[in-house]
Amino acid sequence: MRITDLRLALVFVPFPGPVYPAWRAGGVQEGTQATVLEIDTDAGITGVGTTFAHGRREMIETVEHMVRPYLIGKDPFAVERHIHLLRTAGMFGARPWLVEVALWDIIGKAAGLPLYRLWGGYTDRVKAYASTAEVRPPARRADDVRRYRDDGFRAVKLRLHHDDPQDDLRVVEAAVAAGGGEVEIMADANQGTILPYHTMGPRWSYETARFMARELGQMGVVWLEEPLPRFDFDSIARLSAEVDIPIAGGEANAGLHEFRWLIERRCYDILQPDATLSEGLFQLRKIAGLAEAHGLRFVPHTWADGIGMAANLQLAASVPNCGYLEFPYDPPHFTMGAFQALLVEPIRVEADGCVRVPEAPGLGVELNREAVERFRVG
Ligand SMILES: [Mg+2]
Question: Using CB atoms within 10 A of its CB, is residue 228 exposed (0-12), middle (13-18) or buried (19+)?
């Protein structure tokens, strides 16, 4: 089998109203944006991969100029050979991991198997956690948690971004109480990366991180995510050693080498790379294996779009040390309809709080080409 073409599109799917993401202080997000790649082969099989776009064309330029000329005519199965080119392309342009995702979609389709089964098929169901985007007052978050529970969710992740961390604790306290022991609560401080908008947002000191970790641990919060900057390995490792609550992170780290440092230095209890951001889909299986060997968990980050979430779901279901799927969803404006608009068949949470891993070959999902054309902006 040979690769015959790479086709790219930039899409913007509007939300029904503005979303104010916690990680961009003072910022507004009007919709979800993605770069969509389709790779064609002479066998008539087409693979799809997507990644973040933020309304810009860097990924399209990177793939067109640095990846496309090399990949045309190549064997799509030789991923371990192509990964070197992708790493180099990511050094000069955007990190083109969507290419590796699309190659695996081709391989899965050629094999007639969903990737999770091709890779060992650990489980066909994964517990979803609703991953919120906004900071909201305690009473509203309590209502949200009850609604999530009615929607089937048994786990919800909250954002900690108040100027006064005590206000964050009040939100978590209200959410835990509203869950009534039926809904697990996670907390994300998003301190790993600074995404400045009008302001930088709250920045935590080591002492704040430790105080919050202890308080959240007392409330039974499942994990505290990104309490410190992503390269402050010494402080993250020290925090993990000093507190009982599991510390999670890694969504903004990249490359096998960074995850090796994070794992060997015991920074995080839970590693959270993203198959569209951190390193290729199969490359992340190596990180999952290294984490497993160190007794650590591996729970991918999934904020690209529906296709990106589907890719991370196949990965999550293939390894024994995962257990959760991050499910971005924060109604009324951050909707499943917008986030998963590129899927013909959306991924749904069932009554027991789990998602069923799609069984179709490859990523298990079909790209909605009509939606790609309707929302295409470049
Ligand atoms: Mg996060």
Answer: buried
Say how far apart CA 231 and CA 132 lie, in whole Å: 25
> What sign for the dihedral angle of Cα 64, 70, 75, 78?
negative
Q: Measured in Å, how far apart are the chain's first and last C-alpha atoms?
A: 30
**In contact, 37 and 7? CB cutoff 8 Å:** yes
Whole-number pLDDT of residue 56: 85
Q: How far is the CA of 249 from the centre of ligand 1 (A)?
A: 7
Closest CA to 208 of 220, 199, 216: 216
CA of 60 to the centre of ligand 1 (A): 25
- pTM, 2 dp: 0.97
Our measurement of the distance from residue 367's CA atom to the centroid of its chain's CA atoms, rounded to an integer in Å, reads 18
Beta bridge partners of 47: 39
Alpha helices in the chain (DSSP H): 58-62, 68-71, 79-92, 97-111, 115-118, 138-151, 165-179, 206-218, 233-242, 255-264, 281-293, 306-318, 336-339, 369-375
Query: CA separation (Å) from 207 to 173, 192, 203?
Result: 21, 16, 11
Quick one: tokens of 345? Answer: 């068949």
Q: Quote the mean pLDDT of the chain.
A: 96
Ligand 1 centre distance from Cα of residue 192 (Å) = 8
Residue 339: is its pLDDT beyond 70? yes
pLDDT for 24 equals 87
User: Which residues are paired to 334 by β-bridges?
Assistant: 330
CATH number listed for the domain at residues 3-112+367-375: 3.30.390.10
CB within 8 A of 318, min separation 6: which ones? 115, 116, 117, 119, 120, 121, 122, 285
Tell me the CA–centroid distance for residue 13 and ligand 1, in Å: 22
The CA 191 to ligand 1 mean position distance, Å, reads 9
Domain 117-356 has CATH 2.60.40.10: no
CA distance 104 to 96: 14
Q: What are the boundaries of each domain within the chain?
A: 3-112+367-375, 117-356
DSSP state of 275: T
Ligand 1 centroid to 41 CA: how many Å? 36
